[in-house]
Structures are given as C-alpha cells and as structure tokens.
Amino acid sequence: MFNGKTKSDMPGDVSVGTSTSLIGAGTTMKGDITSNGDLRIDGTLVGNIHCSAKVVIGAGGVVQGDINGQQADIMGKVTGTIKVKDLLQLKGGSHLNGNIQAAKLQIEPQANFNGECHMTAPAVEHSSNGKAAPEIKREIKHAEVAAG
C-alpha cells in the first residue's frame, strides 16, 4: 500500500507451520488451541492443546486441559492428560496431575507427577529385512513420582 511491495516480497516472510506460537506470561486464555507449529505456554490456558509439533509449558505456564502433540517439555503446571507420539520431558519443578501416554518419558528429580503412565512404541518401525517390527508396549499403572 505504501511502497508498492507485496507481503510475499518482504524479507523474513515465515511460511505457515514453521513458526512458534506463544502465550506469554500474564496472559490467560480460555479455549482449545490447534497448531501445526511449535507452541509455548508461559501464561495460563484453560482448554485443550492439539499440536502436530512440540509443546513447551514454561516454568510459569499453567494448563488446565489435555495436551496432544509430537513432543512435549513440561516445566510448569499441567492438570490433564498428556499424549505425545515421541518424547515427553517432565523438567525439574514441573507439576503434572493427570495421565501420560508417550513413546519415551524423561522425568527429572525435582518433577512431581501423579497419575498413570502408558508407554507404547512410536509408529510402526521396519526391521532390517523390510518387514514391520512387532509393536512393543510398555505400561506402568498407578505411577506416582514425587521427588523432594
């Protein structure tokens, strides 16, 4: 409008699905979020998250709802079910009240987790002979982890 250049001509144009969305500290949001890119919550969310990439809940972040994503790093407080297809990390100082379903789980010593944990192998893996490897299921029921 002002200089004759279109939006696509401008430098730093970010393609859809490759950026990180942020709910900043001091922000409270009610409703579900669906994202194709990474998502970071440093504020408060009352609702569910559906993300096809990585979800990060910062140290001051609070989520009251379910989280579904590819990966997740939790440093804040979550009340709800977390389902990730790959790695879930519960960092020191995090508080999780809810169930977990993940292929890989890492819990740091100062993390607090109350709920059930169901671990399954990631998507179908192929063995060296080209055939699908059998699915491996690991399950932990009624896991309560609290490090002080």
Short description:
Helices cover 0% and strands 46% of the residues. With 148 residues, it is mainly β.
Please provide the ordered H/E string of secondary-structure elements.
Answer: EEEEEEEEEEEEEEEEEEEE
Q: Helix amount, in percent?
A: under 10%
Major sheet details = 7 strands, mixed
| Lateral strand order in the biggest sheet | 2-5-8-11-14-17-20
Mean pLDDT: 82
Distance N to C terminus: 59 Å
Which value, in Å, is the CA radius of gyration?
18 Å
Number of domains: 1
Secondary-structure class:
mainly beta
General shape:
globular
Helical stretch tally: 0
Beta strand %: over 45%
- Contiguous uncertain segments of 5+ residues: 5-17, 133-144
Quick one: how many beta strands? Answer: 20
Structure characterization notes:
This protein is mostly beta strands and 148 residues long. It is built from no helices and 20 strands. The protein has one domain. Helices cover 0% and strands 46% of the residues. The strands form 3 sheets. A 7-stranded mixed β-sheet has the order 2-5-8-11-14-17-20, with no helix packed on it. Strands 3-6-9-12-15-18-19 form a 7-stranded mixed β-sheet, with no helix packed on it. The radius of gyration is 18 Å and the shape is globular. The chain starts with 19 loop residues before the first strand and ends with a strand. Residues 5-17 and 133-144 have low confidence and may be disordered.
